[in-house]
Amino acid sequence: MKTDTRCVHSGSYFEKTTGGINTPIFTSSAFDYLDREDIPYPRYFNTVNQDAVVQKIAALEKAESGVLFSSGMAAMSTAILAFAGAGDHVVLMDELYGGTHAFATDTFARLGIAHTFAASTAEAIGAAVNDRTRVIVIESPTNPLLSVVDIARIVDIARARDITTIIDNTFATPINQKPLNLGIDIVVHSGTKYLGGHSDLCCGVAVTSQDRTESILHVARHLGGSLNAMTCYLLERSLKTLALRVTRQTANAQALADFLHRHPRVNQVYYPGLADAPGHATARAQMSGFGAMLSFELEGATADTDAFLRKLALIRPAVSLGGVETTICAPAVTSHEKMSPEERQRVGVTDGLLRLSVGIEHADDLIDDLDRALKPSAS
Ligand SMILES: *Cc1c(COP(=O)(O)O)cnc(C)c1O
């Protein structure tokens, strides 16, 4: 089956009583245990609604199985802790989702886990590895500068030393990138973003081999972080349109990137789909589409980002991303606000940087909105 077909058909539960074609919402947290082997319980991550969704996502990522969580951070933190403990070392890219960055900075030391942040290249990641490294955590494209790392080269480095690789595939989605095909061990998503896709739910997932799923489940059952049946259902419903949404969002993002790239009041556009982007060739080789996230920097005179955002009529200033509606935010005061100004400077998150999450609207309307806001003020 092609990915588009899997979005619709994989992992659905057949409801025998009525023949209804959707998975029913099973709300029970208590189950009759007589004469049954595998008793469902939400925090055991084994209910019908959890299974149906995780099977669909695993099918999209070409994984054997996985674990569904109540947030992307639950998925990421649990996956890391399943493979790194006291005395171990973890290498993470420094251009990482702010929450993952903060998790390493705030919590690893207390758990006895050492860590090193490396720049977004295979060379830098290789150089940061030592004899105690058990896990490498990467993201591609990155937030918010859309850097692209050569995934297969990082896999080579990790495999030579038996290190577990985790990628946060939230930005790319399985529609544009399937990291397990490139040799990555574990794919993590914040399902709050594209998988949910309507800015109305919070969830996460880690998909991988059956063996590694068992290791993640072992920790997950202690930490909790399971997803409720209602949200499982919303997610399952959303996933049926994932390919349609992301394909349209990706095409819109390319149109907006091309427009902004040509605009005299825009300094810099970060989008791997631009022919002159540093990661363009790598993205072309490892992605099937360049994604629907892009960032740009306003030119000096325009660089009051709040004033610019107030001039937009259609595009909403909002944190989070991946919804059907186009949203925009300044990472320096939102996703990367917890980083020190020095760290932000080092990873290139300037105060004038704006990040667009491109939706499914008509590209012409989005371009008109940006074009109007970019015009110099009349006064
Ligand atoms: C939002 C996000 C997360 C965290 O997900 P939550 O669902 O908010 O916990 C992790 N990684 C990336 C890339 C994200 O955008």
Q: Nutshell version of this structure?
A:
The protein has 379 residues and is an alpha/beta fold.
Q: What do you see in this structure?
A:
- It is a single chain.
- The protein has 379 residues and is of the alpha/beta class.
- The chain folds into 2 domains: 3-239, Aspartate Aminotransferase, domain 2; 242-374, Aspartate Aminotransferase, domain 1 (Alpha-Beta Complex), CATH 3.90.1150.10.
- Helix content is 38%, strand content 15%.
- It contains 14 helices and 12 strands.
- It has a 7-stranded mixed beta sheet with strand order 1-7-6-5-4-2-3, sandwiched between helices.
- The mean pLDDT is 95.
- The structure holds pyridoxal-5'-phosphate.
- Pyridoxal-5'-phosphate binds at residues 71-73, 97, 99, 143, 168, 170-171, 190, 192-193, 202, 204.
Q: What is the CATH-assigned architecture of the largest domain? A: 3-Layer(aba) Sandwich
* Weakly predicted, low-confidence segments: none
Counted beta strands: 12
What order do the SSEs take from the amino end to the carboxyl end, as H and E?
HHEHEHEHEHEHEEHHHEHEHEEHEH
Number of helices: 14
Radius of gyration: 21 Å
Strand content: 15-25%
Structural class call reads alpha/beta
What is the 3D form? globular
| Largest beta-sheet characterization | 7 strands, mixed
Q: How are the strands of the biggest sheet laid out side by side?
A: 1-7-6-5-4-2-3
**Quaternary organisation:** single chain
Total domain count: 2
- In the CATH hierarchy, the third-tier topology of the largest domain is known as Aspartate Aminotransferase, domain 2
Q: What small molecules accompany the polymer chains?
A: pyridoxal-5'-phosphate
Helix content: 25-40%
CATH superfamily of the largest domain: Type I PLP-dependent aspartate aminotransferase-like (Major domain)
CATH class of the largest domain: Alpha Beta
Q: Alpha-carbon distance between the termini?
A: 58 Å
Average pLDDT, to the nearest integer?
Answer: 95
